[in-house]
Amino acid sequence: DSSEIKEEVLKKDDRFLTLLKDVYVESRDPPVQVKDGGGEHLPSKQEEKRLTKLGHLEALDVTKVPKGKISLVEALTLLNNHKLQPQIWTAEKIAAEYSLELKEVNSLLEFFIPFTVLEFPKETKKALTSHKPKQLT
C-alpha cells in the first residue's frame, strides 16, 4: 500500500512537467503611498539619563548621557584615574560611580590604556644633538 504511494509520488509525469514549463508569473508591487499622520506621534521610549561627572572639563563634553554609557571625557578621566590609583579606582567602584556593568568596565580597563608622555632629560638631548650622524656609503 505505502510502496505504491511512494512510487506514485516519485514518478515523473511528462504531461505535468510540460504544463509547468508553460506557466509564467509576473508580479508587481503597488505604488507606495505615504500616509499623513495628521500630527499624531508615537510615544518614544524615554531613556533614563544621568548627569556627567566631568568636574573642570565640563565645557568640553555633553552634560547628560544615558545610563549604562559614558562620554568620551569621562572615559579618559576614569582610565587615567585607574592608571594613577588602581587600588582606589577599582572596576567595581568605576561601575558604581558611572552606572556601568562590571564586565564592560573590566573590558574597558583591559583593552584601553591612556598614553603616557615621557620627557627626556636635557642631558640626553645634548648628547643626541652633539652626536655626528654617520654617512651611509
Automatic annotation (TrEMBL):
Q: How does it assemble?
A: Binds calmodulin. Interacts with NDUFAF3.
> Species name for this entry?
Aegithalos caudatus
Q: Which Pfam families match?
A: UPF0240
Protein's name according to its UniProt entry: NADH dehydrogenase [ubiquinone] 1 alpha subcomplex assembly factor 4
Q: Name one GO cellular component term.
A: mitochondrion
Family membership: Belongs to the NDUFAF4 family.
Q: Name one GO biological process term.
A: mitochondrial respiratory chain complex I assembly
